[in-house]
Automatic annotation (TrEMBL):
GO terms for molecular function: fatty acyl-CoA hydrolase activity. Pfam families: 4HBT_2. The lineage of its organism: Bacteria, Pseudomonadati, Bacteroidota, Flavobacteriia, Flavobacteriales. It comes from the Bacteria. Gene3D superfamilies: Hotdog Thioesterase. This is Acyl-CoA thioesterase.
Length: 145
């Protein structure tokens, strides 16, 4: 039997306080907010890896860029609530790494959404995607282990 995930299973966690204005006409949090919250979680993960955020890209050898994202909605979120997002690397490929962000509702005491982020690395000087540098793989392994 597969064990259920808990927020304690994640080394990188992001806390989001749901705002009243994030709800839509159907009285639940609008789907675009999950994308925004996931972006915050992804940046928190990058910072935990050691990437410097808001640095001039031209001064960097390479930088992470979102190549693909998807969100699976499991249960509607309502105001008031606090969402704790646990993010981790699920897969490392030759040209990207795949993060998953798990959204846990403190009101519902359960997983309410899952976001997948495929992250590629770009050489800003050449303006092209590059193979995943060994240093990035090492940073991920150090963070996750």
């Amino acid at each position: 039997m597969k064990q259920e995930l808990s927020i304690t299973d994640f080394k990188v966690r992001t806390t989001i306080v749901v705002q009243w204005g994030e709800m839509d006409a159907f009285q639940h949090v609008n789907n675009v907010n999950y994308v925004r919250w996931g972006e915050t979680a992804r940046i928190d993960y990058f910072k935990a890896m050691g990437f410097i955020i808001n640095q001039n890209p031209k001064k960097m050898l390479y930088a992470p860029i979102l190549g693909f994202q998807s969100v699976k909605y499991i249960s509607p979120v309502l105001y008031p609530d606090t969402i704790i997002i646990g993010t981790r690397t699920e897969e490392i490929k030759s040209d990207r790494f795949v993060l998953n962000s798990y959204f846990f509702s403190t009101q519902q005491k359960r997983l309410v959404a899952l976001k997948t982020h495929e992250v590629v690395i770009v050489d800003y000087n050449k303006q092209q995607k590059i193979a995943l540098p060994k240093a990035v793989i090492e940073d991920i392994n150090q963070l996750e282990n």
